[in-house]
Amino acid sequence: MTFVERYLRWPHLILALLFLGVVLGVKSFRELPLNLFPDANYPQIVVVLSLPGASAEDVEQEVVIPVEKELATLSLVRKVRSVARDGVGVLSVEFEYEKGLSAAQVDVSSALDRILSDLPRGLLPPRIFKVSDATNPVMTVAITPRPGSNLSLAEVRRLAEEYLKPALLNVPQIGDVEVFGGYKPEVRVEIKRDALARYGLNLASITAALFSQNSNLPAGIVRSKDSEIFIKIPGEITEPEQLRDIVIPLKGKSIRLGDIANITLAHEDRNSLFHGNGKPAIGLNVLRPENGNVMATIEAAEKALKKLQAKYPELNFSIADTQKNIIKTSLSNLIGALRDAIILTVAVIFLLMARVRATLLAAVSIPVTYFLTFFFMKLFGLELNIVTMTAVILAVGLLVDDSIVVAENIERHLREKGLSPRQAAISGTQEIMLADLSGTFTTILVLIPIMFVGGYVEKILRPLAMVLTMALTASYIVSVTIIPLLAPYVLRKGEPSRLEKFLSRLSEGFLEKFRAFYLTLFRFGVRYKIVLVMPAILLMVLSVKKVMPLVGRDLMPPMDTGIVKVSFEVTPNTPIEEAEKIINQMEKELVSYPGFIRMATVMGSEPGVISFGADRTPRQGIITVHFVDRFHRKENIWQIEDDLYQKFLKIPGLKTLHVFEFGATPLSSIAAPVDVMVSGYNPRILHHLALEIEKRLYKVPGLVSLSHTWDFDRLEYLIKPDIEKLSAYGLTPEILAREIYMGFSGGKASFWRIPEERPYAIKVRFSPAERNSLDDLLNYLVPTPKGPVPLREIATVEKDFVRNVIVRENLSPVIDVLGYRRKTAISHIQAGVGKALSDLKIPSGYKVSQEGEVKPMQESFGRLKDALILSLILLYFSLVPTFRSFRHPITIMVAIPLALIGAIWGLLLVGRHFCMPASMGMILLSGVVVNNSILLLDFIEKAREKGKDLREAVEGAIRARTRPILMTALSTIAGMIPIAAERAIGLERLSPLAVVAIGGLLVGTVLTLVYVPLFYVFLEKLRTSGSKGISLLKGVFWSRV
């Protein structure tokens, strides 16, 4: 009794397991997490170090350099990058994937503990943040006062921080919430400069009085036998007006603070701003938990916001940015693409099989296989995203291959051998199941190296390889269990219908011409090998050497998601109010642009608010704009970007401008697609080199916008005190600096504490009218023990232009020249950049390197090359035991270079670049295309075992296997067409995979039916020829194992 007969005796058990798999599959599909792309960013820890009052140079030298040296010693560190600006240093430490995010945070925290005692006094406690894909907000909410409300944006921010944020954090599906938007409430104590001089006061004494008289002071403990009671002297104010009564001591008398200062409740000077949908607002970012479900977080946040809207009717909540639309639209498109793939595949099967029942038998495997696949996905913790859904669609053509082969063989046994439906099912399945298993196994085998290749490649492509493996496994199980089980009930010996007869005549006529063509070509090739072989070799060389460079290379293809990013910087020293006017002009253009939906504008940064951007300077910003998807507009996203770029260039006050699509860089740690980094120690030389490089890059085709990361263009006043005069007045440079800093920038003297709310800072400084010009600075009467003296008498003030930021990477100062493209291949731009900089004179001790996408692209292609080589080795050795020969696997693998020709030309013809998904397509293609060769060779070997001669066996195989080979190839191609046609938002990222597979299968299948039999005959004749030098090879390559 055969294996098939044994398990077909238990139909009820098979059907019960089938229904159980379907139920579990449906449940799993409904519960799978939704995301746009797999989480792929490297683990990253950001450290924010604040040193109030310090210049960018001081922050670099005293804080950043010591800390980054310590951080660079940690294990598995890829990169340490820092940005120093006035008062703040931000260090980003990027780790290898092998380093867990929590472990990385512990290591960084330990490193800071070791170095903290060596850092300057006045440094605020370091803030450490984990940065991952979960740090990207799933939703940005713009909160504004409703029209008619008396609330200011400062009050809205207070409500957001004190009430809205805690309410959202109580939702289990929400990982974190961050508030942003410049309007931080504070109590201003604006000192009158003439009063200072009149009373001989200094700001330090006023600050000290504020602190001492606005504090709750402990006064000991009363102890008795029965109790301990603490004593406290309450002194904190309950209202800002009470500050007026604070007593400022003078010699022999005192005055009140209200006599020398104006006290108001206002907001801090803004170094950041947020606009939602073109209006000033407070931004609120909703983040998912680590490894959380994006859609679950969004839906939970939407429900919570509805409740908050009802609770706070004076506020208006609007969505400024969200991942919901793109994920839902993409999933809907992908399901539509899956439907189209199934329809096309079934149509191809029907046209070639010309049997309704046989087609239905093969088609029934599709839903069953998918339900099993979804169950496996849930079991292995995968999610539904563009990558996994692409694998599901790709699997349509692949998974029916097994069912087609089994169903076609059963029907052939039924039709040609006259067996009963049951016997035909048993014998047809038994005859083909091992060859079918071998084909399925080889496809799975070539995917295994991808799952363990490491790096970014593994993060993106492993889910795809896993889903394909699951689908192929499920497909084979279904093909050898469900198909033979249902075949006796579905297939009949009766007369075909008229439609079937008509289609059969068409299909047979088509196939007969194919068979005749291939047989003629084969016979010709046997006689004139060189005539047939040389064109194939020449075409292969031409494809690899000439066509591939024309195709170009990318890490990942650009995509049109309908989201545009506008990155900008206004000219230095521009007041934030003026910068806001520039932003208003850009937003006006965007709001009126056809297809506009929503936008979020962020300028500057706030310490500790990572999701809005931590290393942005106060004059840098980004606008995220959502347009309708590409199926509902005429222009593609790159045409929109070009149009907006030209419009924004006309706006005065913009220093730098880039307009690019969402996902322009596959990794968040890549600053721009093109990044030419200059490193060295003299900032002036660095800046000079960057300007020269930028000038040269303007001539590189494909680059649309350029900028460099910093300039010497921020105006700064340098106060150079006369030390002798300072000493004569009883001052030191430190005292002078402190007084000027407090008067012009302000110092936090104390806090106004409100029960159950965040305390308001009380800031002491001069009024705005007395601190807005150089004359105000020079005429400042500096308090001294000998009476006030004008600053101009004890110091000189010079103007200087300094760097707005200081950037370092891997312990060296750097400047980056950043460039954006539209759709030009990165390899073509890389070549252009290399040519433009070929004769650049680089001083000794300085280095110019291409970073951006080039570096990870080279690393990824290196890993993919290793994976491809390993896949081919595994493929070869898996075929050896199957055919018990070292020779036949070589014959089978002849199909791979033939398919490569079609893959390369396919990319060229449809205008796609060779990229990571295309490489994956090559690897997948090598496993798929050999299946046809396996079926062909398996038939030849079985025919020869039955006594047929070489020529007869080969020609018989061509005749018998043309139909199933064409069916499997064309059905696989049909299933991939929706992916190649980019029928879903985001599929542009993976369409090259389908293009490679379609082109390779098309050409590979056409050539396989000629060259594989030809190569087989050539090796067989060589084996039996008795030629000299062959005897040694016979023992290895031509012997049975």
Question: Would you mind describing this structure in some detail?
Answer:
The protein is α+β, with helices and mostly antiparallel strands and 1041 residues long. It folds into four domains: 3-31 and 327-555 and 857-1037, Multidrug efflux transporter AcrB transmembrane domain (Multidrug efflux transporter AcrB transmembrane fold); 38-132, Alpha-Beta Plaits (2-Layer Sandwich), CATH 3.30.70.1430; 185-216 and 236-267 and 714-803, 2-Layer Sandwich (Multidrug efflux transporter AcrB TolC docking domain, DN and DC subdomains); 671-702 and 807-852, Ribosomal protein S10 (Alpha-Beta Plaits). Helix content is 53%, strand content 19%. The strands form eight sheets. Strands 1, 2, 3, 4, 21, 22, 29, 30 and 31 form a nine-stranded antiparallel sheet that branches. The longest helix is centred in the middle third of the chain and has 36 residues, at 455-490. The protein starts with a helix and ends with a helix. Pfam families: ACR_tran. It comes from Thermodesulfatator autotrophicus. The chain crosses the membrane at residues 334-353, 360-380, 386-407, 432-452, 464-491, 526-544, 867-883, 890-908, 920-940, 961-981, 993-1019. GO terms for molecular function: xenobiotic transmembrane transporter activity. One of its GO terms (cellular component) is plasma membrane.
